[in-house]
Amino acid sequence: MDWFFDPSLTLSERKARMHRWLLLASRVGDDTQVPRFNPAGQNAIATGQEWPEPRPTRNDSRVSTSLAQPSISSSISTPEYQKAACVDLPLETSLACRACRSGAQDDECRFRGFRLISPCLSGAIAAVSFPEPPSTTHSLSEDCAPLPHSEKIHVVAKLTAVAQLLLPALKPEIELFEHPGLLYQRPSAGFRTTCDKCLTSIFSGAWLCTCCGFESCLDCYSAVIRLPSDGGGDLSNACASDSHHFRPLARLTRQELISESNRMSAWLESFSGVPQDSSHVPCGDSQSMRNVEKNVITVTASDMTSERFASIWSHGAPFLVRDLASDPRLWSPQYFMDAFGPDACTVEDCQTGNMEDVTVSAFFKQFSKPSRKASLKLKDWPPTSAFEEVFPELYRDFARTVPAPEYVLRTGIFNLAAHFPELGVPPDLGPKMYNALASMPGSDTRGSTRLHSDIADAVNVMKYSSTADGAVWTIFAAEDSETLSTFLRTHVEGSQTDSTIDPIDGQQHYLTSSMLTTLREKTGLTWWEIVQRTNEAVFIPAGCPHQVLNRSHCVKIAIDFVSPQNIARCHHLTARFRAQNVGEKWKEDVLQLKTMAWHAWVALSH
């Protein structure tokens, strides 16, 4: 589709070609060439210049922990990239990065594979420096496979959503190059870079302390250089406030950013008036849909087409899909006891939050006990490993039966997360299992899942329920989050009013029936109430506060995804979490939305 970005075309000519392209996309077969993400060539950035080795993790067995032998022709060797952590080198403490000074096990050396060092013949480090920006620029990969003709029209909506998010974000990234002393670092495999101040992932530009490795995002830099000069007594932060130590750092070139910024501007300018989707499913008035237990959209699995999903999802409302297929041999408590019984797991008491280590068999045996003292749940299972690796049989059944797989699955063409390269650290969006006993009865129940909102879209599928009662979901509109938070702070006992963490984001509360009655009386808010049963899926848009109460013992599986319809909402949530992290660090940004959007743009527009 390079013709679209031809500078010789006028605006009207580009619009005319776009209309013709969309018309062809809806009529012709797979021979029409439209760009698509290519998993085999997913690293979007190539280079014409030699790069330093990617910064590895401490557990990378390929990393040499010793320096290369210095040249014997000189007392000081030619500068070379630092191949080991600062703590493993003969460095003065003042030359070590903040991670190596602190000895934190959950942090990585900031300078390995990035800083240049000059060792003496004696082995001591004589000098340190940083590489200059490359003299040649990147070229963006254009090795993209064609889309099936049925999916081509959706590329337009996807590119438009990404361009609307990224275009304003690229302006400060480009302006960073106006500062002198710019450093350049290639993105490192297996390493996610976050701001040391707000824990938000860093897309390209940042400010780096060349003394200790403290890295600040562009938004936090002005606040970082005002930190107390003594670092509050923390050696790892001791030099963070000396602004002369900070230099601008970029991971993409200026030419690259400007080129893509111009392409995004041209795309958005030419796109006005071009239809994005001709399908429409009447969903009713959005305000009336928010009445309790009324107008919950329900679709059978056999009727869930891609067009139907897109139309419903554009309203920003949750909905229910019924009559999903499932392998009857799988998902029962007995299946898990037989297949994974001796395995260790950690369960949580839904009422108290206390954790306990048990075996899988011991947990699932309680599904058949007539009486019990607690409501336990085994959530986010498996906690670290990929679901498809630990439970391949279960994953195949899930992937085969989940509604709207083109949006939901990691490989889905409409899932923006599908374009995240293996070069970085893709966000762990699941799937994960959520297994829980029925909630304890009584007016003081804390439910199975407390009130919270997710930074990405999600779908939750119930695979097993001990009775027909299933689970009850209470879901609020994303735009009602602020009103709901204010109510929790002022009317609900136990809210930490002095905390910078939002009571919804902190998952502090479960709203009982009496609390919900008070909420409606005080605020006028309404919400959706969805009863979920076996082989039913609940779709929850990003940012919608929700809570769950299991009426029976349940086995569920959930997966997060990033849809073009809700990318702006995901961005808003990232900013909200960042603001809270500035005051009280509590949640790292693992979604990396700007990086995800960048790779989606590159994969689809080239």
Automatic annotation (TrEMBL):
Keyword Nucleus on entry: yes
Q: Which GO terms describe its biological process?
A: regulation of transcription by RNA polymerase II
Q: Please report a single Pfam family linked to this protein.
A: JmjC
GO MF annotation list: chromatin DNA binding; histone H3K9 demethylase activity; metal ion binding; transcription coregulator activity
One Gene Ontology term, aspect cellular component: histone deacetylase complex
Please name the InterPro entries in this protein's record.
JmjC_dom, LSDs-like
Q: Which Gene3D superfamilies match?
A: Cupin
Region annotation Disordered: where it falls in the sequence: 34-69
**Is Metal-binding given among the entry's keywords?**
yes
Sorted UniProt keywords? Metal-binding, Nucleus
Q: Which SUPFAM superfamilies match?
A: Clavaminate synthase-like (SSF51197)
Instruction: Provide ranges: composition bias, Basic and acidic residues.
Output: 52-61
Q: Where in the cell is it found?
A: Nucleus
Q: Where is the JmjC domain?
A: 409-578
User: Which stretch is the leader sequence?
Assistant: none
Report what the protein is called.
Answer: JmjC domain-containing protein
Q: Species name for this entry?
A: Exidia glandulosa HHB12029
